[in-house]
Design a protein that fits this description.
Helix content is about 15%, strand content about 30%.
Length: about 140
């Protein structure tokens, strides 16, 4: 007959109900993570997709300095807290709460930094980084005189 070690089994199933994860405890140093990022590439461009639900496009700042792209966000908390008080609403657990963050990316040499575009739709910030057109090798015959 097989016995189950209750000391191991019990916490594994009920851990989320009774134990607090220290990362979930609200503190004044609230941000412990940065949004997830996807980077796609095709022949003409790179696309950075940054998952940041709950923000507005005005919360984002995108800067290019030399060969670095810096994406940052700063969320104004006061308006959200006022709305929650009016609706008598509070979060029991909040995992996608990005108040302030910064992500930096080193840009390749072949990026056309003048034509970078960004959009924020459905919680995803998309930054399009067009590649510079490659100079085609010029081949011609030179006549010898």
């Amino acid at each position: 007959m097989r016995t189950i070690n209750k000391d191991i089994w019990f916490p594994a199933i009920f851990e989320d109900l009774f134990l607090e994860n220290k990362i979930d405890i609200p503190t004044k140093f609230k941000t412990f993570s940065a949004p997830a990022v996807n980077i796609r590439q095709n022949l003409t461009s790179f696309v950075i997709e940054l998952a940041a639900p709950g923000l507005k496009k005005d919360n984002f700042s995108i800067e290019i300095e030399e060969d670095t792209l810096k994406i940052s966000a700063k969320k104004v908390i006061q308006a959200e807290e006022e709305e929650d008080k009016v609706n008598d609403f509070h979060y029991q657990k909040r995992e996608f709460d990005y108040n302030d963050f910064t992500r930096s990316f080193k840009l390749p040499e072949n990026i056309n930094s003048e034509d970078i575009e960004a959009s924020y739709i459905d919680g995803i910030l998309k930054v399009s980084l067009p590649k510079l057109e490659e100079k085609k090798a010029l081949k011609r015959m030179v006549e010898i005189s």
